[in-house]
């Protein structure tokens, strides 16, 4: 009786090539088709662990933690200065699902700086903002704007303490006119004082007090 031999099924070569191409663990620099490059750890063909990503189109660089292909954990993001050709740090802090989340510090191009909490890529929670004109806001943030209780200190040391909504003074608050030695205490709505009382406060130490003191009621 003749013996029939069937040819063994051969595995397509691309299966083997695909297995070899799968990235897991620490790898050398991997270049994307668009020129981006990543050096670091992988898991199941996704960036996972510690790694550094460089974007070719912008020259930006991220160095820190990754989780299943997204920035997640602690890391810093920097951009390349077109003039000096040096990297300038833009953000250093915590990330979640590829967005700023948790505590972090952001440096803005105009010299301003935010030091505080983030949520879903927006300033949210407690934070301190240093503005270009020398003003400083310290307090609560909501959806990238002052919201809740906070204090704004102006360059001349005058300050407002009280409620905020949508980035504007809103609700009960106090405005200290330290240059004139006066205090306004009242209620605000959309940055406008609606009602309140004005009294002398620290008039003796004020650098430019009003000519006449406010009479006591």
TrEMBL record:
<dbReference type="InterPro" id="IPR003409">
    <property type="entry name" value="MORN"/>
</dbReference>
<dbReference type="GO" id="GO:0001669">
    <property type="term" value="C:acrosomal vesicle"/>
</dbReference>
<protein>
    <recommendedName>
        <fullName>MORN repeat-containing protein 3</fullName>
    </recommendedName>
</protein>
<keyword id="KW-0677">Repeat</keyword>
<comment type="function">
    <text>Assembles a suppression complex (suppresome) by tethering SIRT1 and MDM2 to regulate composite modifications of p53/TP53. Confers both deacetylation-mediated functional inactivation, by SIRT1, and ubiquitination-dependent degradation, by MDM2, of p53/TP53, promoting a proliferative and cell survival behaviors. May play a role in the regulation of spermatogenesis.</text>
</comment>
<dbReference type="Pfam" id="PF02493">
    <property type="entry name" value="MORN"/>
</dbReference>
<keyword id="KW-0968">Cytoplasmic vesicle</keyword>
<dbReference type="InterPro" id="IPR052472">
    <property type="entry name" value="MORN3"/>
</dbReference>
């Amino acid at each position: 009786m003749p013996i029939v031999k069937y040819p063994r099924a051969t595995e397509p070569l691309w299966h083997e090539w695909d297995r070899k191409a799968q990235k897991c663990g620490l790898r050398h620099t991997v270049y994307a088709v668009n020129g981006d490059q990543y050096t670091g750890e992988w898991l199941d063909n996704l960036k996972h662990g510690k790694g550094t990503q460089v974007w070719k189109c912008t020259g930006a660089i991220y160095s820190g933690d990754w989780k299943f292909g997204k920035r997640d954990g602690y890391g810093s993001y920097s951009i390349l200065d077109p003039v000096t050709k040096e990297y300038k740090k833009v953000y250093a802090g915590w990330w979640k699902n590829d967005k700023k989340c948790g505590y972090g510090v952001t440096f803005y191009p105009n010299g301003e700086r935010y030091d505080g909490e983030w949520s879903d890529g927006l300033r949210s929670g407690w934070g301190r903002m240093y503005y270009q004109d020398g003003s400083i806001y310290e307090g609560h943030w909501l959806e990238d704007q002052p919201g809740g209780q906070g204090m704004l200190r102006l360059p001349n040391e005058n300050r407002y303490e009280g409620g905020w909504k949508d980035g504007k003074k809103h609700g009960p608050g106090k405005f200290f006119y330290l240059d004139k030695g006066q205090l306004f205490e009242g209620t605000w709505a959309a940055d406008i004082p609606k009602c309140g009382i004005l009294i002398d406060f620290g008039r003796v130490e004020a650098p430019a007090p009003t000519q006449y003191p406010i009479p006591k009621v």
